């Protein structure tokens, strides 16, 4: 029996991923959720804006597993707030708190429960890379202290939407840096983990912009198929969800030395992330400096 633990599997392409996992024989899916879950999944309450909830979720997973281990950990949930002024219950900027810190904590708590040769996937975004030329401003840095508390950043963007976009892209940069740092941890090496960052690409019709203005949400959800035909770089939900399911199920493995899986024109490709995402000092500092923010030793 294969056991998969997942966040972000109740809507958008993540729900398609969850359904494909559930359709696979001898596969068990433990799914963190605040609402409904696909039939067959084992829902466990999880609110990623509260680190206490993350700890309770990890405890519940440990109890549900019993003597079993986790064969794939799919950290897919994400949020793109409308401005940079929102804060989690723990006082952190919302995009950074949900997209990075909550998953960083969950990853570290569940690391001892991962099986030999397990897969770990963190969902990132091409917005982290200035070379992608997206409409969202790219990150300037990966400082955990400043991303957690952007009001302390002297270079913070004054325009709320710009600040929000940069907070989102920065949190997605952190997902890649976290994947790279995890792969170097002794426990990950001892278990021969496959660790990667997954970029679904721009995928109209998903719920990522649920916090955006009403008109933007309407266009994104209603005209997703039209946008995909007009803009060739856009992907379908089926491709984004199917490729993530293939990674979680182990039917797709990264080529040697690759860790950044990106869907482009519905096809899974293996790319180099941005220069900042490849920075070793930024990688090590983020892993180290995120620990005290979530109450863990570095």
From TrEMBL:
<protein>
    <recommendedName>
        <fullName>Dehydrogenase</fullName>
    </recommendedName>
</protein>
<dbReference type="GO" id="GO:0016491">
    <property type="term" value="F:oxidoreductase activity"/>
</dbReference>
<dbReference type="InterPro" id="IPR036291">
    <property type="entry name" value="NAD(P)-bd_dom_sf"/>
</dbReference>
<dbReference type="Pfam" id="PF00106">
    <property type="entry name" value="adh_short"/>
</dbReference>
<keyword id="KW-0560">Oxidoreductase</keyword>
<comment type="similarity">
    <text>Belongs to the short-chain dehydrogenases/reductases (SDR) family.</text>
</comment>
<dbReference type="InterPro" id="IPR002347">
    <property type="entry name" value="SDR_fam"/>
</dbReference>
């Amino acid at each position: 029996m294969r056991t998969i633990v997942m966040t972000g599997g109740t809507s958008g392409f993540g729900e398609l991923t969850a359904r494909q996992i559930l359709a696979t024989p001898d596969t068990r899916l433990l799914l963190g959720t605040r609402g409904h879950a696909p039939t067959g999944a084992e829902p466990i309450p999880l609110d990623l804006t509260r680190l206490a909830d993350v700890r309770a979720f990890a405890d519940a997973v440990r109890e549900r597993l019993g003597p079993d281990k986790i064969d794939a950990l799919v950290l897919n949930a994400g949020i793109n707030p409308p401005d940079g002024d929102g804060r989690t219950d723990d006082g952190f900027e919302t995009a950074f708190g949900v997209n990075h810190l909550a998953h960083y904590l969950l990853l570290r708590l569940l690391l001892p429960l991962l099986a030999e040769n397990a897969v770990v996937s963190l969902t990132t975004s091409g917005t982290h890379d200035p070379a992608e030329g997206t409409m969202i401003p790219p990150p300037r840095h990966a400082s955990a202290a400043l991303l957690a508390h952007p009001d302390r950043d002297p270079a913070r963007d004054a325009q709320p939407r710009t600040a929000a976009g940069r907070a989102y892209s920065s949190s997605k940069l952190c997902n890649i840096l976290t994947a790279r740092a995890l792969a170097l941890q002794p426990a990950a090496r001892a278990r021969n983990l496959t660790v990667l960052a997954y970029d679904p690409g721009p995928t109209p019709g998903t719920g990522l912009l649920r916090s955006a203005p009403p008109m933007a949400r309407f266009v994104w959800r209603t005209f997703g198929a039209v946008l995909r035909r007009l803009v060739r770089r856009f992907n379908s939900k089926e491709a984004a969800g199917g490729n993530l399911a293939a990674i979680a199920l182990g039917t797709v493995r990264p080529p040697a030395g690759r860790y950044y899986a990106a869907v482009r024109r519905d096809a899974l490709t293996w790319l180099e992330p941005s220069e900042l995402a490849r920075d070793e000092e930024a990688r090590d500092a983020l892993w180290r400096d995120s620990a005290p923010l979530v109450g863990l030793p570095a």
